[in-house]
Structures are given as C-alpha cells and as structure tokens.
Amino acid sequence: QVQLVESGGGSVQDGGSLRLSCTASGYTSLRNCMAWFRQAPGKKREEVAGIDTGGSKTDYADSVKGRFTISQDNTKNTMYLQMNSLKPEDTAMYYCAAGPRLLRAGTWQCRFTVDAYNYWGQGTQVTVSS
Predict the structure, then answer these.
(1) Bridge partners of residue 99, in order along the sequence
(2) CA 31 to CA 43: how far, in whole Å?
C-alpha cells in the first residue's frame, strides 16, 4: 500500500510562488500515475496536473497552464508542483494522488481524472491573498 505525504503549502500574496512536494512511501518508486488535485470549500475536487512517471507525459488544467509545472524525482520517490504567478482563485486544499495505468483504447495509459486514483495524501492548504 502506498502512503503519500504532501508539504510546501502556505499563504502567499497575489503573484507569488510556492512549491509543493509529495513523497511516496511503501514502495521504492513512484506509482505509474501521479497527479495533483485541488478542492475549494463548496466545490468538487478538480485536476490540476498529472504525470506518467514512466514516460513523463504531463497533463494540466487550462487554468494553470503556463503557471504550474509538475515534475518528479524517482530517486527520492517525490513529485513536485511548482506554482508561479499565483492568483486568489488558486486558493484551495491541494491533494497528491497516485494510481495505476488503465486500459484505454487498447493501451495502458494514465487517466488524469479523480476516479482513476486510489491513493491520496492528506492535503496541504494553499492560500493566495490579493
């Protein structure tokens, strides 16, 4: 079983930057599919960014493209989310997630949707003020 622990959240001003980290334990390497999700009060959990740790294929929500960057360090079993040019609308609880590749169109691929992930971290709060 995989355990995920996030860190790096905090409070910043509009335009600031934060770097979130997600460290996996229970296995010697990251799961095939890793992703960041966020959830604001009263809203559904939404995808922010995802990565196929084997092929480094990434996926980003339109709202964060050009501002956020997802990356991995397999030697440390850690995934990162570099967040630049933060906006108040980025305020949310951010969650790290891990899951397997799923069969799609005859190929085993990562699906960057909430239902595709079976391991979740505890969340780390990100607050961006004006």
Answers:
(1) 33
(2) 27
How many whole angstroms separate alpha carbon 45 and alpha carbon 59? 16
pLDDT tens sequence across 17-61: 999 999 998 765 567 899 999 999 999 999 999 999 887 789 999
Question: What's phi and psi for 76, nearest 5 deg?
Answer: -110, 0
Tokens 């899951």 found at? 99
Give tens-digit pLDDT for 65-84: 999 999 998 889 899 999 99
Alpha carbon distance 75, 126 (integer Å): 27
- Please, are residues 98 and 24 in contact by the beta-carbon 8 Å criterion? yes
Distance CA 111, CA 101 (A): 7
Rounded (5°) CA angle 118-6-32: 40
10 Å Cβ neighbour count for 58?
16
Helix (H, G, I), strand (E, B) or coil at 89: helix
**Is residue 64 classed as helix, strand or coil in its secondary structure?**
coil
